[in-house]
Write a structure and sequence with these properties.
The longest helix has 26 residues. The strands form 4 sheets. The chain has a 7-stranded mixed β-sheet with strand order 13-12-11-10-9-8-15, with helices on one face. Strands 5-4-3-2-1-14 form a 6-stranded mixed β-sheet. The protein starts with a strand and ends with a helix. Helix 6 packs across helix 12, helix 7 crosses helix 12 and helix 8 runs antiparallel to helix 13. It folds into 2 domains: 293 residues, 4-Layer Sandwich (Nitrilase/N-carbamoyl-D-aminoacid amidohydrolase); 318 residues, HUPs (Rossmann fold, 3-Layer(aba) Sandwich). It is of the alpha/beta class.
């Protein structure tokens, strides 16, 4: 449960219709298996102690009596366990029969949750046997003990702050206003659904969509356990389509028609983060609920879920291509609108032969094509200086010519040398002044050429550089529209690769592939034997790590210890833990100290769920203290 993770299980035992004793034994086996695997919330299907397909046998006194005895057996299997277990059975209350979920823990029945929406359409005829459950909890005398009975019951677990569990049964989730929705508004972060959903052609896709959309809208975890093998096939077939979903994402899903119990780790802290950040998520109705405190021992959950090493980049090739095309469209449409508004007819871009300026030039060409402007109205400026290598220089020149832009070369060595003489900078002192002096000279040239051509300077810096502050203030930090500000470095590479693969121009493709093969560098220090001597990732750390840190900090609100934990898991075959920790410390130091650069960013388009614009996603003070974050990093 450390870091907000809780392991949960959706179980589908193989049952016998109308054989509660046998079914109870199968449920007990499932409880033992789930507890052995560390599950703390365990969900079984609807009416699993008798079978969903008993039909009019539900009206038989003997079956109902045996169902109670089966429940006692199942409750006994939870003795000594703090796991919360949900088991379905028919239960008589007053003169009516109810389809209920019994909630078990440590040998006790904590509550009965009745089904609220009783279907009587198509193949379902539950109203023949069951009454709709009451919302306001009532007292039910079970085995000499008063047990709460009603839909409006929540279970508040003390082991994880914010972990509150609500329960609904099958049809409830299909209703326009589901109990799960009401539970979530009352504070439930995890919803369980005991189901007996039969299989028809295409129903699995609809069921999956329903679970994903419900969990996303409610910003909750969903544990869905469905009936499977053993149910009567007289008229229906049940496939055991179990699912565990978190905020619209399927964490685990059973293969239908194959008995399969599934497990997943739901992240309660992430769900709480999402609810905090969404101003339209307004809690209500808490006062209409009975909230039962549930004790669980705090322990570290052994994670079965994984975290992609590149959260900004889809692993699937088709999805990645689609993402790249969409981002290129967002970037180019943003720039197109800016040109339509300003009436500018030309663009000025500093091209270095590196990834970022290459992407910016590609986006600008796209925008100009959309506008019907000639590519000759794009001025690509190469500005060689002390660190420029032949490889990057040649690629910058060839790229500009191949794309049809006007290439302009301004050698800045003499201007920078004079400037250094004016300010007393020793040419042999390759410090930050030596580097930034070149970057600011380049920006001045770009701005002045833009004035000369009545154009705009197109910014090339990406989001990863801005997160780390790896930009010269009022140097490459400044432009008139930054097309790459919403694109992390790990995704820049894939965008250029996608363009190379789809451009249909062999010459352009060859240039782009060589750009992709070139080490990332600002080229502000002299090369060694003609080769780049200043590699960015040697100085600030691997961008794949920093992008990982950035995503889980800003998008998910994770603390440093949690980010470190999942990074060690995700990069276990790539980096030692000490290396990850080193760059995590660098990330937090730079992220907090460099906010002043982000506070005055030029305009640029947001393209994903993470952005650092001071006018959008990141309203952060420039002088915020980083001590509590860095202290936690030091303690790792």
């Amino acid at each position: 449960m450390k870091h907000g993770f809780i392991k949960v299980a959706a179980m589908t035992p193989k049952i016998r219709v109308a054989d509660p004793e046998y079914n109870a034994k199968e449920v007990c086996k499932g409880i033992e298996e789930a507890c052995t695997n560390g599950a703390k919330i365990i969900v079984f299907p609807e009416l699993c102690l008798t079978g969903y397909t008993c039909g009019d046998l539900f009206l038989q006194e003997l079956l109902l009596t045996q169902a109670k005895e089966a429940l006692n057996i199942a409750a006994g299997a939870t003795e000594g366990s703090d796991a919360l277990v949900f088991v379905g059975l028919p239960l008589e209350k007053g003169s009516k029969l109810y389809n209920v979920a019994a909630v078990l823990q440590n040998g006790e029945v904590l509550a009965f949750i009745p089904k609220k929406h009783i279907p009587s359409y198509a193949e379902f005829y539950e109203t023949r046997h069951f009454a709709a459950g009451n919302e306001v909890p009532e007292t039910y005398l079970y085995e000499g003990k008063e047990v709460p009975f009603g839909t409006n019951i929540l279970f508040e677990v003390d082991a994880i702050s914010g972990l509150t569990v609500g329960c609904e049964i099958c049809e409830d989730i299909w209703a326009p206003l589901s109990p799960g929705t009401l539970h979530a508004l009352a504070g439930a972060t995890v919803l369980v659904n005991l189901s007996a959903s039969n299989e028809t052609v295409g129903k699995d896709e609809y069921r999956e969509l329903l679970l994903k959309s419900s969990s996303a809208k409610q910003i909750a975890g969903y544990i869905y356990s469905s009936a499977g093998e053993g149910e009567s096939t007289q008229d229906l077939v049940f496939g055991g389509h179990n699912m565990i979903v978190e905020n619209g994402t399927i964490l685990a899903q059973a293969k239908r028609f194959t008995p399969e119990n599934i497990y997943a780790d739901i992240d309660i802290h992430r769900l709480r983060h999402e609810r905090r950040r969404m101003s339209t998520y307004v809690p209500e109705r808490r006062e209409q609920y009975l909230v039962l405190p549930v004790h669980m021992e705090e322990e570290e959950t052994a994670l079965v879920r994984t975290f992609g090493a590149q959260p900004f980049v889809p692993a699937n090739q088709n999805e990645r291509d689609k993402r790249c095309e969409e981002i290129l469209s967002i970037q180019s449409y943003g720039l197109k609108k800016r040109y339509e508004h300003t009436g500018c007819q030309s663009a000025v871009i500093g091209v270095s032969g590196g990834l970022d300026s290459t992407l910016a030039l590609l986006v600008t060409v796209r925008a100009f094509d959309m506008l019907g402007l000639k590519r000759e109205q794009i001025t690509a400026v190469t500005m060689p200086c002390f660190g420029t290598t032949d490889r990057t220089y040649d690629n910058a020149c060839k790229l500009a010519r191949t794309l049809g832009a006007v290439l302009e070369e301004v050698d800045i060595k003499e201007a920078v040398t004079v400037h250094f003489r004016d300010i007393g900078q020793d040419m042999e002192n390759h410090d930050v002044t030596y580097e930034n002096g070149q970057a600011r000279e380049r920006t001045q040239i770009l701005m002045d050429i833009a004035n000369r051509t009545n154009g705009m300077v197109i910014g090339t810096g990406d989001m990863s550089e801005l997160a780390l502050g790896w930009a010269t203030y009022n140097g490459d930090h400044m432009s008139m529209y930054g097309v790459n500000v919403g694109v992390p470095k790990t995704l820049v590479r894939h965008l250029v690769r996608y363009y190379a693969d789809t451009c249909g121009n062999e010459e352009l493709q060859a240039i782009l592939l060589d750009v992709l093969d070139t080490p990332v560098s600002p080229e502000l220090l002299p090369p060694v034997d003609g080769v780049i001597s200043q590699k960015t990732e040697d100085l600030v750390g691997p961008y794949e790590l920093h992008d990982f840190f950035l995503y889980y900090m800003l998008r998910c609100g994770f603390e440093p210890a949690k980010i470190y934990r999942i990074a060690c898991q995700s990069f276990k075959d790539i980096y030692d833990k000490s290396v990850i920790l080193k760059w995590l410390k660098t990330f937090y130091k730079r992220f907090f100290t460099q906010q002043f650069k982000r506070s005055c960013l030029p305009d640029g388009p947001k393209v994903g769920s993470v952005a650092v614009s001071p006018r959008g996603d990141l309203r952060m003070p420039s002088d915020a203290c980083a001590d509590i974050w860095l202290k936690q990093v030091e303690e790792l």
